[in-house]
Amino acid sequence: MQRSLRLKRELHMLAENPPPGISCWQDENKINVLRAQIIGSDETPYDGGIFSIEVSIPDRYPFEPPKAKFITPIYHPNIDSGGRICLDALKMPPQGAWKPSLNIGSILTTIQLLMSEPNPDDPLMADISAEYKYNKQKFIQKAIEHTRQYALGKSMLLNGKNRTHCCGSSDDERMETNSNMDFPHCSGHTSNSRKRLSNDKQQSSIDNKSKKPKGII
Fold this sequence. Notes:
By secondary structure, the chain is of the alpha+beta class. The protein contains five helices and four strands; from the N terminus they run αββββαααα. The protein has one domain: Roll (Ubiquitin Conjugating Enzyme), CATH 3.10.110.10.
């Protein structure tokens, strides 16, 4: 019950005040699965790409973090070929930084930040990490080509990069949920993501005090 109420409130907040470049909606066939899309940021190899993400909500949410993975292939040192993401916000302490005060919006925003600012010192893909560190131009070119091949022309967002929406449609791309989300070689810690999570936590606290959900879907 608590998970369901929390999820409805968060989806409503994402519809009312979505983070720039992010869209999120509930899978019409699975109540514990969300579909999201992130637009690649300007001046990154992912610029113009539309990246689909699957977010699975555990029974004990928000006391356990959601599980997120990329459905759209992406060339990135912290995201593997199966879409798994090395990110501290997706892990429980002490290895991770998840707290019940965080939410789906802050997770998606942190993933968006990770796309723009990879952490090659804590990779899931060692070869891409080495390329990023020692031959960055080659990495950029490969990431651009990957984006062009897999991430263009699949947007469910409205009218460009500065508008987002939340809808009831499901993603055309389907993928089996990977039950093994442990990353023994990935700590997931980045200073930038921790700063963003701290800011999101403060904003979440302000939002919870200042406005009550209305018109819950």
